[in-house]
Amino acid sequence: MKFAIIATGGKQYKVTEGKAYTFEKLDKKVGAAVTFDEVLLYSDGKTTEVGTPTIKKVKVSGKVISQEKAKKVTVIKYKHKVRYRRKKGHRQQVTKVNIEKIGLVK
Q1: Which sign does the torsion angle of CA 22, 26, 32, 38 carry?
Q2: Exposure pattern of 69-103 as b/e (b: 16+ CB <10 Å)?
Q3: Residue 56: is it exposed, middle or buried by C-beta count within 10 angstroms (0-12/13-18/19+)?
Q4: Residue 89 contacts by C-beta under 8 Å, 6 or more apart in sequence?
Q5: Mean pLDDT, range 23-44, rounded to an integer
Q6: Cα 27 from Cα 66, distance rounded (Å)
Q7: What is the pLDDT of residues 1-30, one digit of tens each?
Q8: For residues 98 and 21, what is the distance between their CA atoms, to the nearest angstrom?
């Protein structure tokens, strides 16, 4: 099974071909092609290559499916005895990407 570990948005993701993943917001329009250059690990099922820190000859390409918001995170601040209560919600913007190809660049 071919897979790669990529870094984007300050996080690392294990991706495989043909699956959709949710990443931190990317400045791309729906239907646009996206290429991830920061490949940290690549495996084609037989051999595994680890980058130091990245692998220059491997690229991961995909297509943007949608721009959406993640599930709401509720933040509550509370201090007892002083009647202090604050409730705030936040929805992070995310980009859904379908990974089309993981491969070597010539």
Answers
A1: negative
A2: eeeeeeeeeeeeeeeeeeeeeeeeebbbbebeebe
A3: exposed
A4: 72, 73, 74, 75
A5: 95
A6: 11
A7: 899 999 999 999 999 999 999 999 999 999
A8: 6
pLDDT tops 80 at residue 106: no
Question: DSSP secondary structure string, 26-85?
Answer: -S--TT-EEEE--EEEEE-SS-EEE-SS--TTEEEEEEEEEEEE---EEEEEEETTTTEE
Token reading at 1: 């099974």
The total number of residues written for the chain in this structure: 106
- Model-level pTM greater than 0.85? no
| CA dihedral of 70, 99, 59, 12, whole degrees rounded to 10 | 30
Residue 95 amino acid letter: T
- Cα separation values, 102 from 43, 49, 53, 67, Å: 10, 13, 18, 22
Q: What is the DSSP letter of 10?
A: T
